[in-house]
Amino acid sequence: MTKEDLILIDHFCQHHGIEPDFIVALKEFDLIEILVLEEKQYIEAAELAKIEKIIRLHHELEINLEGIDIIMNLLEQLDHYKSQLTSARNKLDFFEKQ
Q1: What is the dihedral sign for C-alpha 29, 30, 32, 38?
Q2: Cβ neighbours of residue 35 under 8 Å, at least 6 residues apart?
Q3: What is the mean pLDDT of the chain?
Q4: How confident is the model at residue 98 (pLDDT cuts 50, 70, 90)?
Q5: Which residues have a Cβ under 8 Å from the Cβ of 10 and sit 6 or more positions away?
Q6: What span, in angstroms and rounded, lies between the C-alpha atoms of 58 and 50?
Q7: Could you read off the pLDDT of 62-90 as tens digits, one per residue?
Q8: 52-78: b or e for each residue (b if 16 or more CB lie within 10 Å)?
Q9: Which helix (H) or strand (E) holds 42?
Q10: What is the reported pTM?
């Protein structure tokens, strides 16, 4: 991972109009990872979509962090089951063609 793949938390919060404490709270709930380099806190660019989804859930729908944690876990499970279903369909298609 290079420094270009990282976003300074202060810049992210300023751009989105949120407090850095909110990002730290997400870390405390293990919803995101915060990297510390040279005494500055960063988030990975790969996590941007996830963090922005969390911000929308919190601000637009007024869901608390406990609820967001549950929602994100359910979404991860859903993605896992979707990939299992796709794999099973591919195997079925393979065997049906033989």
Answers
A1: positive
A2: 6, 41, 42, 43, 44
A3: 93
A4: confident
A5: 20, 40, 41
A6: 12
A7: 999 999 999 999 999 999 999 999 999 99
A8: eebbebbeeeebebeebbeebeeeeee
A9: strand 40-44
A10: 0.80
